[in-house]
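Per reviewer request, we include the raw input and output of the structure prediction for the construct analysed in the revised manuscript.
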Amino acid sequence: KHNTKKQVLPHIEALTQNILGMIIAFIILYLWGMSMSESVALQCVFFITSYIRSYIVRKFFQTIEIEHKE
């Protein structure tokens, strides 16, 4: 059960960070004058790349943490 939680938490963290980022970016792009469809398309690209980046960085630091405990 503990391993499952360790595997799920990085996904939850990455999703939370990316959703908050999307909300902020959507507001900024709207205020800048970008249409909703353009904003949504751009946000999809940013969301996918940001999610992958966040997850990889988190797993990297978890690996370092585990290696230092051994």
